[in-house]
Amino acid sequence: MKEYKIYHSGRFHTTSGEFQIINPFTGKAFAKSYLADKNVLEEAIAGAQKAIPAMQRLASYEKYEILLDIAGKIHQNRDEFAKLLAVESAKPIRYALGEIDRATQTLTIAAEESKRLPKEYLDLDWTGKGAGKEALVRYFPLGLIAGISPFNFPLNLAMHKIAPAIAAGNVIILKPSTSTPLSTLFLAQLLDQTRLPKGAVSILPMSRETGNILVRDDRFKLLSFTGSPAVGWKMKRECGKKKILLELGGNAGVVIAPSANIDLAVEKCLIGGFAYSGQVCIHAQRIYVHHKIFDEFSEKFISRVKALKNGDPLDEQTEVSAMIDEQNAIRVEEWVNEAVNEGAKLLCGGKREGGFYSPTVLSETHNEMKVCALEVFGPVVTLEKYPDFDTALRWINDSRYGLQAGIFTDSIEEMNRAFEQLAVGGVIINDIPTFRVDHMPYGGIKDSGLGREGVKYSIMEMMEPKLLVKNK
Known about the structure:
The chain is an alpha/beta fold. It has helices at 38-57, 60-76, 78-89, 93-113, 156-168, 182-191, 208-216, 229-238, 262-274, 294-306, 326-341, 370-373, 389-397, 412-421, 455-461, and strands at 2-3, 6-8, 11-13, 17-23, 28-35, 119-123, 133-141, 144-148, 171-175, 201-203, 222-226, 243-247, 253-256, 286-290, 345-348, 352-353, 356-357, 360-363, 380-386, 401-402, 404-408, 426-429, 445-446, 449-450, 463-471.
């Protein structure tokens, strides 16, 4: 069983808190790592604080070179990263490779952004009091950052915390999911080979109890959390004076208008609904199709869903594999069965085998059902007719979440109306809400989060403006 040590203060460590990592597809342990306790975390905090001056002294070109060096090392180890990620998370290898490529892209973007950190010149003589004076606004790194990343994109979502922190000149302690810590611990081995100041990045799996120190300790100046709304909003209540950046998911909606390319919409919604078993924050969960094209869309979509290839995540042909664990598969099964008992129609799927839940399409649902009202975070979509565009927009907005929405239409008027009226963080035209590239602002409103990720936008969250006023 391969060992992955935790990393802080520029060194690799073991602790008494050994734990095993389970392959969700086989249900068998295949690697081991270690939990950081409060004493280890305290050592990591001390090491990070010592690294703050070195990080703040780094010139832009030095941060640029370090970030590109990390990106290059990940690319050189692309296949090993992807296989490790596929085994620890049951993510099909085709999607695992895509995540590794996105992680290198996130680092490359951060490298570029590190060369153009914001600053501003102000002439102050707009009033008599400011005559003869000028001002400079510069943005300075906050210092110590805490990051908590989830299981579903274990490398790239961690990178959305680590890369901006480095670009901004901060130090960061990252708590990865204990279900999928290995890709970030492998990353630590590569970080250690770069010119990054020792202690600038620590990667520490830890219990929730220990992880709460990241939330409550005022030595951390910002907490960046990706996870569930229940946990995220509790953290906001407990985080004290620190800034907080929350990415909390949703139950994203899609609208298919009569002018849409139906075949394109079918293929896109197939990916949006079932890539990585729907365990994606911007999973296309609620699909609304105009009543005139509903039958055509439904027939084509269900046919493609039934043809999805299930199996071993390491098989290049596999499109859907096991969920992260059997407990979550059981939860999805219970939600679907509950919806059917309340009158929903099962169009396909609805079967569970251990940690695998078959791709499932429901219709004739209503908004009180969990599969509609909550984030299902599984391979389940609802498919419903809508009578007119305004009704479809109202149905998307009838949600406690507001992350992203997809609109398939060739009408500029409908595109503009959706953009103006939808209460979401992003409107994606002729694509699924699952669309994301790593330099765009990403985040939601309502229960979907607070603030924005996307490398430049995270960098801004991780810096503080300071004003200099002087005579001309």
